[in-house]
Amino acid sequence: MQGFDSVLGWLVSAVGIATGAAYVPQAVRIWKRNSSADVSMVTYLRFLGGQLVYFVYGVRIRQVPLIVGMAANIVGSVVVIGSALKFRAPK
User: Fold this and answer.
1) Labelling 35: which of 16, 27, 77, 81 has CA 20 to 30 A away?
2) Which helix (H) or strand (E) holds 28?
3) Entry pTM
4) 48: nearest Cα among 21, 74, 13, 24
5) In order of start, what are the domains of the chain with their CATH numbers?
6) Which H or E element spans position 70?
7) Cβ-count burial 57-86 (b if 16+ within 10 Å, e if not)
8) What are phi and psi of 42, to 5 degrees?
């Protein structure tokens, strides 16, 4: 069972990093268009909130795969939010 847990831990980390990388196309699109008009800040802020909760939980229970995965997702969310704020049209 320990071998399965080890593989599962690596898989959780890999999936977390992959989902964190999934934010890259949105950030690239914002930068290419110099616009974030079609980006829902509420959605990304909610993603970030959930990711922070899971990250803190991972730290609290000392689960490195969860910490790694959520850290990658937090970076992705912050990049999209930062890009969206930079290119947000003034009201």
Assistant:
1) 16
2) helix 24-33
3) 0.88
4) 74
5) 2-86 (1.20.1280.290)
6) helix 64-86
7) ebeeeebebbbbbbbbbbebbebbbebbee
8) -60, -45
Two tokens, residue 29: 């699109």
Instruction: Give the position of tokens 């934010």.
Output: 23
Q: How many Cβ atoms from other residues are within 10 Å of residue 43's Cβ?
A: 11
AA letter at 32: K
Sequence letter at residue 83 = S
Which tokens is 56 given?
Answer: 């803190």
**For the segment 27-45, what is each residue's pLDDT rounded down to a tens digit?**
999 999 999 988 999 999 9
Could you identify the residue written with the tokens 């899971």? 54
